[in-house]
Amino acid sequence: MQQWLRSSKFLLIFLPIWLFVLSWIRPLSVPDEGRYGDISRSMFESGDWLIPRINSLPFMHKPPLLHWLSSIFMELFGMHIWVLRLVPVLAATLMLVSLFLFVRKHISERVAQLTAIILGTNLLFFGSSEYINHDLLLASWITVSVLCFVDFTISARKSILFLGYFAGAAAFLSKGLIGVLIPGMILLPWLLYTKQWKKIPSLLNPLGILLFILLVSPWLYAVQL
User: Fold this and answer.
1) Residue 16, preceding bond cis, omega within 30 degrees?
2) Which residues make Cβ contacts (< 8 Å) with residue 75, sequence separation at least 6?
3) pLDDT digits (tens, 9 = 90+) for 68-119
4) Closest C-alpha to 180, from 188, 172, 190
5) Residue by residue, what is the 3-state secondary structure of 21-89?
6) Is this structure's pTM higher than 0.85?
C-alpha cells in the first residue's frame, strides 16, 4: 500500500482528480468568474467564436482561447459551473504533468514527485486551478513553452522545439503578447547565465516561427477584418 501511494502514476492521477472534485463545491465568484463564464456562455449560445462578447458587446481585453475551450466543453457536457472550471483544472494538470516529466528526465523521479506535490499543494496554484480566468491557462502554456525550449537546448530534439512554439502560440491566444514576452524574459537570462548564448540562433527556428504565425494569425486577421 505504501509503495502504491508513493508511485508516480498514483500521484499524477490523484492530484488532478483532487483538483477537479474540489472545483464543484462553491458557486461562481465575482467579478472574474461571473464575467468570463458569461462570455463563454454567450459564445456557446450564439455560435460566434470570433468575438468574445459580454451583454452582446465586444469584450476584446484578451484573446479567446479560454472561451473556445469552455464552449467546447459546454457543447460536450452542458452548461454547468464544473464544466466552466474544467479549463483551469486541465491547465493545472498540464502544468503538473509537464513539470513532472521535465524534472524526472533531467534530475530524478523522486525529485519529480516532490515537485508535483509541492506545486499541487501550493495555495496560489490550488486557488488558480479552481478559478475561471485566463491566468493559469497562460501560466501553464508558458511553463510548457519554457520547458520545451530548455529541453531542446539540452537535447537538440527538433520535435520538442516545435512543441515549445505550439505552446507559445497557445499562450499568446490565452492572454496576448505576454505569452511570448515572459518565456523570452526567462530563457534569455538563463542562456546568458549558463553561457549558452551561441545556441540562441538554433532556438529561433524558421519553421518553428512559421508554425507560431500560422497558429495565431488566422484569429488576428479575422478579428482585424
Assistant:
1) no
2) 44
3) 999 999 999 999 999 999 999 999 999 999 999 999 999 999 999 999 999 9
4) 172
5) HHCCCCCCCCCHHHHHHHHHHHHHHHCCCCCCEECCEECCCCCCHHHHHHHHHHHHHCCCHHHHCHHHH
6) yes
